Amino acid sequence: MLSVAVLISGAGSNLRALLAATGDPDFPARVIVVGADRQADGFAHAEQFGIPTIMVPFREFETREHWGEELQRQLEVWNPDLVVLSGLMRLLPPAVVDAWAPHLINTHPAYLPEFPGAHGVRDALASGAAQTGASVIVVDNGIDTGPILAQERVPILPDDTEHSLHERIKPVERRLLIDVVRRIAVGDLDLTTYDHH
Length: 197
Description:
The protein is α/β, with parallel strands linked by helices. The chain folds into 2 domains: 100 residues, Rossmann fold (3-Layer(aba) Sandwich), CATH 3.40.50.170; 92 residues, 3-Layer(aba) Sandwich (Rossmann fold), CATH 3.40.50. It contains 6 helices and 7 strands, in the order βαβαβαβαβαββα. It has a 7-stranded mixed β-sheet with strand order 3-2-1-4-5-6-7, sandwiched between helices. α4 links the parallel β4 and β5.
């Protein structure tokens, strides 16, 4: 059984989908802890599913590195097989990435390498592109530059707003994430082949 830690900053809609999937006895992975860098709304999902939470408030640390050290200490207590970033709005310090990668994955609301960074949906709209997408990647020390594990195209409609486009991307992201976690758990996807060390 693959043990998974999920890190969030906000509402945790991907987290909720993952908790629902892993709550099925036949699903080969379990979320064992949910962490956040602030008091996140998504903790409510963890509570509902009876999953423990950890909070490492970013603002209480002098540097990103110090915050990362505490986050790393907390994660080591749980020792998950896989860490999923699910709307974590902080860049992990290199020491944390190096400790977990390639067993550290993230979703992104664009068809990478197109439109990396924090505003993938807005950037896709602004570019006038006919399509964007969703991706699941291994996290490395770049901005959305890690190896791509799964991705799928999502068309951009003429009357799309950033919100409407993002709402159509989210279900694709969730489905890809759940599928990638399942494939890792059953051994169809071997993350060690993506090791960046």
